[in-house]
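Field log, afternoon session.

UNIT: design team B
ACTIVITY: writing a sequence onto a fixed backbone
BACKBONE:
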């Protein structure tokens, strides 16, 4: 029978603070499959906690402890965990319960191949469907991103926020409601990996080039170019994740991401 006492952290202490309270993390909207209000709250809290590393990969998610931590009953927590499992963020194993999933190289390959198709599709549609106001907003977000990169010491959290807003604007600009629901959950990575990604000068400059070319293609109304660049951008992120897994997760050392 599954232990219902405390969350198994592998010896790591769990703060009593709300998950993700230590970082200003943009909230993710709960999927429509989560129907109750409390279920949506639980989903958002657990999703944020996983993103910030409050619940690290491999950690067991026990309903009793989580319900107490979130100040709600076990029912919405169970609903949230089941949805996180459907999203591929949590794995439910018989006789062990739910654990936060890690990523294998094969899963990275599959997930980012899917994400490349989705983001390419959205960029292509955005190039022919975005109105002037939406294009102006996308251009503004890119300008803010470029300005932050020009600072002597760019704020990594600001870069994460602006990058997320940039990509969300493209997805919204596609006018496809299903894409707006699916894309944010495709190939998600933790906040700690995002910080590692945006801490590399080389990677920041590469992303800037991709963002600039995507904006230019959308402004020109060129769906073929927009799709091609968006796909290439996603695959560049996948390459980083492979390097990160090899150099940081497997070897247990800090990777030199600027080489």
């Amino acid at each position: 029978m599954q232990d219902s006492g405390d969350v198994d952290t592998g010896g790591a202490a769990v703060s009593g603070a709300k998950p993700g309270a230590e970082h200003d993390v943009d909230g993710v909207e709960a999927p429509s499959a989560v129907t109750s209000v409390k279920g949506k709250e639980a989903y958002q809290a657990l999703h944020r906690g996983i993103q910030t590393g409050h619940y690290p990969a491999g950690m067991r998610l026990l309903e009793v402890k989580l319900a107490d931590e979130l100040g709600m009953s076990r029912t919405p927590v169970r609903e949230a965990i089941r949805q996180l499992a459907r999203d591929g963020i949590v794995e439910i194993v018989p006789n062990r319960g739910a654990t936060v999933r890690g990523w294998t190289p094969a899963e990275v390959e599959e997930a980012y191949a899917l994400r490349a198709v989705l983001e390419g599709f959205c960029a292509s549609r955005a190039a022919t469907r975005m109105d002037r106001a939406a294009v102006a907003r996308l251009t503004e977000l890119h300008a803010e991103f470029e300005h932050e990169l020009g600072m002597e010491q760019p704020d990594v959290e600001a870069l994460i926020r602006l990058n997320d807003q940039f990509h969300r604007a493209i997805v919204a600009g596609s006018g496809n409601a299903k894409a707006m629901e699916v894309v944010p959950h495709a190939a998600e990575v933790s906040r700690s990996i995002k910080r590692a990604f945006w801490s590399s000068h080389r990677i920041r400059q590469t992303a800037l080039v991709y963002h600039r070319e995507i904006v230019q293609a959308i402004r020109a109304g060129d769906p073929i170019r927009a799709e091609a660049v968006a796909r290439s951008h996603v695959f560049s992120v996948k390459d980083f994740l492979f390097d990160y897994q090899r150099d940081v997760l497997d070897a247990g050392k800090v990777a030199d991401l600027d080489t």
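LOG NOTE: Confidence is low (pLDDT under 50) at residues 1-26, 249-259.
NEXT ACTIVITY: expression trials, pending approval
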